[in-house]
Amino acid sequence: ISGETSSIKDSYIDTLTNSATPSVLNGKTWLTGGTSTITNFIDGITGQKIEILAEHTITITDGTNIFLSGSVNFVMNSSDTLTLIQKADGKWYELCRSDNT
Description:
The chain has about 100 residues and is mainly beta. The chain has strands spanning about 10-15, 25-30, 35-40, 50-55, 60, 65, 75, 80-85, 90-100. The strands form two sheets. Strands 1-2-4-8-9-6 form a six-stranded mixed beta sheet, with no helix packed on it. Strands 3-5-7 form a three-stranded mixed beta sheet, with no helix packed on it.
């Protein structure tokens, strides 16, 4: 839409903090940080889509805050991707993934 601006950085790749609950404030595409397990992404907004690009082996935990395909954790390896969307309930839902290993 012409003239529309977004608070989410559409063409910028940032790195998640080394935390089990990293912030995704104002971001769309994220490289994994140093942690080995993520249980939630905080500071998201309803309708926000995030793309996670694995830089190392990391587990995204299915359950309370993140709902993944097959209701199982996703052990991401370097170069794998995961795309999630936040619904109005504040939870993250998987849209797609790519297992590139």
